[in-house]
Amino acid sequence: MGKKVTVVGAGFYGSTTAQRLAEYDVFDTVVITDIIEGKPAGIALDLNQSRAVEGFETTVVGVTTDKNGEGYEAIEGSDVVVITAGLPRKPGMSRMDLLETNAKIVRQVAENVAKYAPNAVVIVVSNPLDEMTALAQIATQFPRNRVLGQAGMLDTARFTNFVAEALSVPVKSVKTLTLGSHGDTMVPVPSQSTVDGKPLREVMPAEQIEELVVRTRNGGAEVVALLKTGSAYYAPSAAAARMAKAVAEDSGEVMPVCAWVDGEYGISGVYLGVEAEIGAQGVKRVVETDLDADELAALKEAAEAVRAKQSDISSM
Ligand code: APR
User: Which residue of 236, 260, 273, 292 is surrounded by the most CB atoms within 10 Å?
Assistant: First the structure.
């Protein structure tokens, strides 16, 4: 049977994610929903009209939903649901400032996803990411492997881009890794980063690596400060769409994602940015990588910071 993916939220993040998913041409159907009347239908119509030019056969369906769940029938049978609903940051805001507003939205969306697409893998991208992922699992009551969040692939992509630019080398020659939270306790991992297979630390001075680490940690805020009206969506949607594709194709690709950690790195019982093998059931397995002592300590600190926030989530 053909694959079906739903994107909830037809804002910047949702519409660009839907576009990428449609252009992959691996899904039968991409459903895009929003609470705004007409907008998802307009985006679907527009994307479908691009098919003749871009040469894809995926059908995009746009549906307006309401808080009571009306319209959600359209997501039935989805293999993957990407939740992008929620407010983005404005300049000066931290992702955590969105907690209460977005918790209400994500809970309501997740409850409807559980009802109408009970077998879907859920990929959360709404911020604050780690907390919203934890909340989506609580609200859906799905097995933890079937609820994951997008952040690590984006943060890693940002780090990679900064390194490639700084060294004037092709992006392809650079491999980086970013773990931890999608926020202040993000953990870029220089020890696992390479340029043309050589350790990053051999080709870049420590101070410059540190500068890029800090820039990566503030990568979202830098875009927000420039855009002024909202947050990033091109790189974020690229990452989320790749994750959804990996699920649909059961590819087993290893990606940095926000996943439930249960003993890996000596950390348990928390949603956290780690590498994981992604397949039809979501997270197949968390993949532990070698970290140096500082990086491991930073990851544990991130876990505790996220745990403290995530424990507030169940009442939201
Ligand atoms: N159900 C469906 N859609 C909703 C709901 C809901 N209950 N509540 C809000 N939305 C929709 C809005 O109507 C809007 O169209 O979510 C969309 C959000 O779009 P934008 O404001 O353009 O924000 P975007 O840049 O897409 O970011 C979405 O991703 O990166 C994160 O921090 C960001 O939390 C934000 C999310």
Answer: 273
Active site (annotated) includes residue 182: yes
Q: Which helix (H) or strand (E) holds 278?
A: strand 268-279
| Of residues 301, 311, 17, 6, the one with CA closest to residue 153 | 17
Instruction: Return the closest-CA partner of residue 243 out of 127, 79, 28.
Output: 79
pLDDT tens-digit readout, 39-94: 999 999 999 999 999 999 999 999 999 988 999 999 999 999 999 999 999 899 99
CATH number at residue 212: 3.90.110.10
Please work out, in degrees rounded to the nearest 5, the angle formed at the alpha carbon of residue 178 by the alpha carbons of 177 and 179: 125
> Which pTM does this prediction carry?
0.98
Residues 87 and 130 in one domain: yes
* Domain final residue pick, 119, 149, 179: 149
Run of H or E including 298: helix 293-313
Instruction: Give the residue numbers spanning the domain of 302.
Output: 152-315
Mutate to test the pocket of ligand 1, among 84, 107, 127, 133 (most ligand atoms within 8 A of CB): 84
pLDDT tens string 143-170? 999 999 999 999 999 999 999 999 999 9
264: DSSP letter? G
